[in-house]
Every structure is written in C-alpha cells, then in structure tokens.
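Quick check before the chapter quiz. The format below is the same one you will see on the exam, so make sure you can read both the input and the output lines.
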Amino acid sequence: MAGNPKRKITRRGFAGAGATAVTLGTAAFSAPLTLAAQSSEASNQAAAVDQNPIRRRGVGFRALNPAKASPGFTLYAHVGGSVYLIDLSGKVVHTWTLPYPLHYAYLTEKGTLFCNAKIPNDTLLGKVGSHCGVVLEADWNGKVLWEVRQPDHHNDGRLLPNGNVLLVCATAIPDAVAQRVQGGLREPGENRKMGGDYLVEMTRDGRTVWRWNSWEYLDPAIDVITGVQDERAEWTHANGIHELPDDHVLVSFRNTSTVINVDRKSGKIVWRMGAPPLAGQHAPTPLANGNLLIFDNGPHRLDETLNFSRVIEVDPVTKKIVWKYQEPVVTGFFSPRISNAQRLPNGNTLINEGVFGRFFEVTSEGEVVWEYVNPHFGPPNAAAAKQQNSTFRAYRYTAEQIERARNAV
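Here is the expected output.
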C-alpha cells in the first residue's frame, strides 16, 4: 500500500512546459535577446493575459501512460452545464444536454443516465450552489424518461434498485436542537434558523415512502461543527449518500466531518467515523473488498498543521486507513469542497479534484498515469477571473458499459 508515493507525472502545466523546452531545444536559451520597438496595438495584444489562473495553467488533455491506465471513457458534468463523455486522449465522444443545469450524473446499471439537476427556488437553500431540486433519468440522446422534483433536495440523489429515488434534503431544525449544537462561528446577536439534513425515499410519482431526520439521531455533543471558522447557518451539510445491500445507508456530513452508517429499519446509527482523521470529506463509496473509498478534502484538519486533500481507503471494521493517495508535498493536491474518487477495474483509482475540475488516475503505488482538466468554465457572463470549471463528480466506464448505454431504453 502506498503512503506518500513519488509521482512520475507532476501537476498540470509541467508536461506542457517540458514539451515546449524539448521542442525549442538549446536554441531557445542561447539565442541573443533583442528588444524590438512595438506598436501600441502590439503592446495591447501582448498584455491580454487570461485572468483565470486555472485556465492559464492549461486545460483539456494533459498526460497519459497507455500501458498503465485503465481503459474506458470518463463521464463528468460541468456544474451548471452539460454532461460530457471523453476517451483517454481527451476527445469528447458524446454530450448529453438536459433541460436543467446539471449538478452531477452517472450511468445506471442498465445504461441510462441518472442526473441530479438544478431548479432554483426562492428559499435560502434554493439559491446556494449545492441546491438541486430535481432528479431525472435520461436516455443516450438526452430524452428525459421521468423526473422527480423536491425543492429541499441538495447535493446528492441516487436511483435505488426498486426504482425509487433516495435524496439528500435540508430544512430548518428545531431551535432546541440548534441551541445544543457545538462549534462554528457565532455571529453577534445571531438569531436565525439553523439548517439540518434529512433523507427521503420517494417514488417516481413523488410519494414519500421513508424519511430519516438527522437531528433525531445525531448527538450535538458528539456531532460538532469541526471548522471553528464555519458559519452556524447549517449543522451537518450532507454531501453524499450510498445505499448498502443490507438496507443500510452511508451518509457523509461535511460540516461535522463525519461518515455514518444508518440502519434504515430502525433509523439508528450503527457505525461512524469522524474527525480526525476525516476533514470535510465527500463521496464515501463501498468497495468490493468491503472497505470504503473516501475523498478526504481536508479544509480544516484537526491533526495536521497544513490543509490538504487525500483519497483514503478505510477498513470499516478497524477504522484504519489501509491505502491513501496524497502528494509528497501535501499542498500540491487540495480541493476544499466537492470531489470524489472511484476504484477502477485494474486496481487504479480515478480522482476528481473537483474545485479545479482536474481528473487524474493513479496506480496503487501512487503513480499518475492519466490527467485531464475540464475546459468548460462558467458562468459565461462572469468576468474571466471569476469563472469556474468545478466538477462535483467524475466516473470512468468501460467500453462495454458505454455500448450498453447507447442501446439502453
């Protein structure tokens, strides 16, 4: 297992810079330097530097080791935009355009596209970036087969094997509970409702068949807001759910830096892992070996002096980290929000450094063998420096899975 592996391919931009140096050769460094008079127009053109630092460092296809990368196609949705499918060379082979701006999407077992999408509303939740409001299933051509709307829905929703949907939702929690919640930044004279999460299973015609209120089972003395600088506007901020085969549900709470396992029948929390070692984590995913793969964002670590991101594989029985990926210089890999990781068929791990729209694949030893940066930025009417290419989640699919998606009905 790799702890702090050395990387053979470094951060984006290095490959491009290296290629330029090889192309220019020594002539690029030995040619005499001369200063030529420039017209005012030429000076203005030379001064037109892209003010977006992510785009300036380089986007699109960055690197590939075909002998070690896991074959297939990577699917991602630009937050607020469309869904893209790219091959290992970075070529876009398919695009889904849906009637709503996308939060994220994934392929179902039968090959259809399941989407968490955005329908803003006038509530406080309806105006924040993590709000969704609708889930839907679409075919290969983007035709919506059905949709379920829920105005409280945010961050994550999953299609269940029984055809229902499981959604993360938020609402104001009882004042008596909010007063007992520890941590976070208290504003002087603060007197506002605190938000909290609930899970809801709904049928495709919008009927609720199961609901779990987090504030009825969490303990304010244990489930504290771990970031002392975080506002107390919301307690938990769930950002990921995953149904387990035994009728349990994994839930990730960002603000309390906790992953829990909920028994759906009793509602009880039967397992938890918190801070440390976790810090603002996302997307806990069960692996075939029974372990959990977690993107541990690290915006405010309680056991480290620096903030950094890593991907960890955890044995839920011992709660020990049995594998991890992080940069040797830890600050070289950091996404304070969103993001996910996926274990691939050949044992590699696909990582989405979500805030910066960077997807890369690493071997079990930590060698980077593929890298791509989302070239889509938005919103289009924003100044260049304020545009983002953020990607909530990204997934790799085999050629067989894509062929099934082409033919899914």
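If your answer matched, good. The longest strand covers residues 165-172.
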